Structure formats: C-alpha cells, structure tokens
Amino acid sequence: MEVVRRNESFCSHGDSCAGWLYRPDGAGTPPVVVMAHGFGGERTWRLPAFAERFAEQGLATFLFDYRTFGASEGKPRNLIDPFDHRDDWLAAVDHVRSLADVDGDRLGLWGTSFSGGHVIEVAGRVDDISAVVARVPFVDGPRTALKLVRNGGTSYLKNGLVAALRDLGRAITRRRPYYVPLAGPPDEFAILNTPDAVEGIEALIPDGESWENRCPARIALTIMIYRPISWASEVDAPVFVAQAEEDKIIPTSTTDRLVRKLDDVERIRYPIGHFDGYRCAPFENLVERESRFLVSHLFD
Predict the structure, then answer these.
(1) 162: which residues sit within 8 A by CB, 6+ positions away?
(2) 173 class by beta-carbon count within 10 Å (0-12 exposed, 13-18 middle, 19+ buried)
(3) Residue range 10-22, pLDDT digits in tens
C-alpha cells in the first residue's frame, strides 16, 4: 500500500510541536497510531521506519517531536521533562482526534523506552484508547535511577546530584541551564553511561544529521518522581509489552510489575539489549509483531 506523508503541527502550552502524518493512500478514514521517541530522542531517529510499516498495513501514523526537541519549538533546548512530554502526548492525541481524514475513535499509542512509560500514563488518563504498544518501557523512575546508580557507583550519584542541583538553581533564577552529556562511556559521567548507550543512540541517528549530546542536568532529579506505572491499573486498552532480556537500563522487576498491574496485556521477551530493536533482524521481528497487534485491535 502506498504511503503519503504530510507535515502537521499542534500547540502544547504555547509552543508549536512538529509532526508527520503517514497515511495509506486512498484508505478513507483509517485508524491512527500516535508515536514519539524516548529519552532525548527525535522523530527522525529510526521512527519513520516504524511509521511507514504501520501505514503500509492500513494504519495512519502520527509521529511528533516533543517541545525543545527536533523541529518543535520550546526552550531551553533538549530539556527532558517527563511531565512536559506527557502534556505533549495529550495535546498530540487531541490534535489527531481533530483531523477529518483519520478515525480518532480507533486510536493506538506507541512508545519506546521513556515514551514506553508515557503511553501507559496517557492511556490511563485518556478515554477510548484502542491499543497500546510499550517497548522496553520506562515505568518506575526511582527503581530505574537506582539501577543506573548501581551501574555507575557512588561517583555517578554524587555527580548527578551536584549537577542537578546546580541546574535547578539556574532554572529558579532564570539563567541558562547547566548542561551535562545525555550519553557517555561508563568511565565518564552522563545521564546514560551504560556500555551500550553512546553506540546505541548514535545508531539511531540518520546519516548527515548532527546530535547535540547534552541535556539540562535537572532530569537527574526529575526522573526520581516519575512513575507511570502508578497509572497502569487505570488502563482499559489492551497493551503489548516488548521486553529486552539483556536491557542494561530498565530493571526487569519494573516490567514484571507493570505486566501484573495491567488488566489486558501481552508480553514478549526478546533476547536483545535496550537499543537493539530498531535495526536489522530485531527490528523486523518487533515491527511485524507490533503491526499485527495494532491491526488486530484497531480494525476489530
């Protein structure tokens, strides 16, 4: 099925967010999937491959950038704030449901890593979500932060707290943020400094596109109070959970707890790492399974 992509935009708290709507050509008013990236990611980072595949199966797909990222407005740039992300998701859902050429009553959510948690909370907050895909989902901030601290040791904890407090002080006084690396090697401080973080993120970025590897340090504290798992019992939609058995970021226990809390859930474990599901055979396996799940519920 031929896929047509068009530019879209919507407003979230006064800023314009950029999006792409992928539609199967000639499909009338198809069901629609809303999707966005994870921790510090942009819509160009391999997500078009998923959007195109879903659209080839007859599903319109709306892919957007969060405020302060990619082609969206907002300052300070590269601010990772899960509560702002959640509001952007809610605004994106409202925008999609206002479009005349898709069926907003048959609406799915697709999230990966950080946004794998966002879609759980959004599905708990929003009525009439038809299906949810949560890949390697971040759902429990304190437990995930604890795993990162255990991986990085006391120096990681100290550096993170000092940097976050410094950045928060600047935010309170309306000064320029204090930036730290988003990803780095294990022997250097970065918000993500697992052995696979730098290579995993760089593999997502299209050739010729630059990456500003930094974010305001306040996320090191903000992450501690973000727990989308607390919304799991409010989710009425069927949920597909893809779990990476070799994940160095997401604790297995948090995914297990999420699955127990959801009423209608299908979980498949894959022998891959956190960043492996975007390319090659793991991508093919995951996108095929996710497509079948979405089609089965959005066309039901």
Answers:
(1) none
(2) exposed
(3) 999 999 999 999 9
